[in-house]
Amino acid sequence: MNEKFFDLKKEKQDRMINASLKIFALHGYRHASTDDIVREASISKGLLFHYFGSKLGTYHFVFDYSVRYMSLELKTAVNPGEKNLFEILRQAEYGKMTAMRRYPYMQQFLNESMHEDVSEALLSVEAKRNELSALYEKILSQADLSRIPASIDPQKLIRLIDYTVKGLMTSRFQDSSFQAEMLYAEIKDYIDLIEKMTENCRIQL
User: Fold this and answer.
1) Backbone angles phi, psi at 178, to 5 degrees
2) Chain centroid, CA 173 distance in Å
3) Which of 121, 78, 119 is nearest to 98 (CA)?
4) 78-94 pLDDT tens trace
5) Angle between helices 34-41 and 45-52 (to 10 degrees)
6) How far apart are CA 165 and CA 191, in angstroms?
7) Chain segment 26-66, per-residue pLDDT in tens
8) Rounded Cα distance, 58 and 14, in Å
9) Which of 7, 39, 52, 119 has a beta carbon 3.0–4.6 Å from 57's, enabling a disulfide?
10) Residue 154 and residue 142: Cα distance in Å, rounded?
11) What is the pTM of this model?
């Protein structure tokens, strides 16, 4: 991490981080521009380069920061003793919402980074790339899947919810209606619905 960056006032730190997250989330590494980042952050390009050196340095920093920050929020939000798969998923989404209150584009940036295809960007974050995925797997491993009907593949169920969540998030960003609390409420409604459908399948069997 860039220690001297954290000597800045928190408001300026967050402005630079949020601007970088937004531009990289919307355009990907290849098409993101440092001109757009500094314009969004209302800072000079010299200041951006003073702390991060280049576009690649900026990408590396915000990726590392996002993984650390999101990991902390997830560990705080998810009860390690919870066994209900759907409640675990609700708690994880609450953790994401908490992070996005401060950094609205953080989760979208992390989602998009999983599809990044520029080699220098991939190499820059290689060490951290699987850290968040490993944490998600650890969190999901808490779940007692014995209440899931045998006719339903738990992994496909989890992927269905994941696709739904990502689709909702992308949709809200595209129509400029994003609010962390509203997105969480919508995601929770879908998780609740899928839980009820799964429970109905179990009862019918």
Assistant:
1) -70, 125
2) 13
3) 78
4) 999 999 999 999 999 99
5) 110
6) 9
7) 999 999 999 999 999 999 999 999 999 999 999 999 999 99
8) 13
9) 52
10) 13
11) 0.90
